[in-house]
Specification:
The chain is mainly alpha-helical. The protein is built from seven helices and two strands; from the N terminus they run ββααααααα. It has a domain at 37-116. The protein has helices at residues 16-26, 32-61, 64-84, 88-95, 103-116, 122-129, 131-155, and strands at 6-8, 11-12. It has a two-stranded antiparallel sheet.
Amino acid sequence: MHTRKIFAKGATLPGKQEYSRMVRAVSRKTNVAATTAKAFLIGGSICLIGEILRQMLLRVLGDETAAGTWVSVILVFCSALLTGLGLYEKIAKHGGAGTLVPITGFANAVSSAAVEAQTEGLILGVGAKIFTIAGPVLLYGTAAAAVYGVILWLAG
């Protein structure tokens, strides 16, 4: 059986080795150490800001649960605001995965989908697209929580 498909007269798909060579030729070379350090510093800075906020709110509110809740709300709001202003993308350009791991990364993913869909209207655009990212996370997060809960219950 012939595995290559013909797209145009005389044109065929490249083989695996040729494709790998083509990808390497156009791929940007990255300094893994520098990229990792930037991700660590930016992600760590986000977490440090969250901890500073938590300590400040803990002193004011005196309740750990309330302080933690407010920190989450503030970080999500700031992330959504920075996304709407186009600044979160600039931070993520340098921070890479460091900006994806904290709660701010999730807020950015949800709000960027909404920002991109603005031209399609509030209901069919923003209202529908905002859950493009959030839907699977909520679904699998809830399912995983249920499974872990059953395992914990069975374990005693």
